Structure prediction request, 574 residues.
Amino acid sequence: MGIPIRTLLVASLVLSSIALDVAAKTLDPYKVLGVDKNASQRDIKKAFHKLSLKYHPDKNKDKGAQQKFEEINNAHEILSDEEKRKNYDLYGDEKGNPGIGGGHFGNHEGFTGGGPKTTYFKSGDGWQTMGGPGNGKTFSFSFGGNPGSDGGNPFGFDLGDVFSNMFGGGGSMGGNQHGGFAGSAGPGARTSSQHTNHVTIKEVTMQSFNKEIADQGISWILLFYTQQAKGQFVLESVLEDVARSLDGAVRAGKINCEKEKALCKKAGVSVGKLARLFIYSYSTTEKGSLHEYSGENDAKSLKTFCQEHLPRFSRRVDISQFSFPSHALPNLPQVLLLSTKKGTPAMWRAVSGMFCNRLIFYDAEVQDASIPLLKRLGVKNVPAVIGRNINGEEQLLKDGISVKDLRSGIKELKTLLESFEKKNKKLASNQAKKPEPTENKIPLLTASNFQETCGEKASVCIIGIFKSNKAKEKLETVLSEVSQKTLIRGQRYNSGNAIAYALLDGNRQSAFLSSFDKSGYQLSENLLLAYKPRRGKFAVHAGELTMEEAERFVASVLNGDVHLSATRQKPVLR
Prediction:
């Protein structure tokens, strides 16, 4: 009884596949890329890009191109990693395992195939871990460790905390030192158990750009291309790697400028012979902007570029001198991150963009467990997040924060901050239900009420100076609104820390104004003067005054962000 032809065909295909796989793993990576054994990383990178363009399955439909493309990526995976390269040179195996028939260099974790547009860069473990079962790498640090075990560190842990490890700010990123971050498998591709999360590069249209990207507080890496532009597939491969590595902090998209001409025109991007990469991100404003990437086409360089352009809404503070501003405007909840990182952690920068107009962010480096604020709130482990609600109450939101990776870390921080924000909204709602003051009229300064209103009982006196009835009405409306926003906070102050608001007739009180300015502000129709009677200092906002400008000026005075000048003499009303 003969064997069915169909069975023979299937067996033949399976054996052929195995043979091809074995052949790929026994090839010399130097020969595959066409470089010698003394080749520099630049030469290896150059050869890889040239060959990957030539044999990419989307461009090369020849028989055997798919296999050649896999061989090229496997070779690059070894030679771009110094440790794997050294192991291969010594043992013929990138993992340092001398085996039968040396020169095996394929993926030893089952990652050998892929569909169109698949990226094959890989990293090693990617983390420096502190142990734990399986692949569940966690990071947590506590005060009071053995000082002798780490060179006298009072906390007893390596200062390269989770946030430093995340982006190499003080600790190693793990086995791969050349930016070969985890890739994103295409349809039908097999991924290693170590990299199972999937990253999608979104096709961006004008509608999705306006809805999901523009001014949403989230950073995006965007590839602008046309079908004729060169470099699209290499850039897309690198883009996928970086998007996977920074998953949670950035998202990835691509824009076809032939189909989305209006969007590319609006963005001010024209695509010529080469595709172009941009990051859409934020500096310290809520408006996003595009920044073009012009570096090498490798994952490590692009990742560094993306990290540099993450949002910067968090203010770096000195923890030994820090206290939450008690009169910040607008009246938003405030949060402080404590970590051992010398700069603002990238993870914190990412979430500061997501909550930029909802929370006020600070961060500080902690090197001493004896800081009064930490003791008072019971902070025992870092990283930790402290919050101050709209009622002025400070609390520890969480300490000893531990995460497995960037995505889960940002997710945990978002959950923590959303919960804190929700509680503050409830507080604000309860305050709104309370009966409002029956009258909030801004008093007109006179000789009889000056000491009571703007004397030394007041920490600061905000005076609206007018020279016409129209200017008076406008100033009264603006100051009434601004004072309402500080009224609840003002009621919490003791009698020595009050904020006062008042109006002054500039035409009748020129002598009073000359105490601040020699000319008595004769050329100004209206202005806002912040006077600190205890210190004898002041600041002035002149010119057209809007509600937003008034709030900003008052906030800068209260927060100590504006320069104060000494009065010419003690102001007196007559």
User: Anything to note?
Assistant: The mean pLDDT is 76. The chain is about 35% helix and 15% strand.
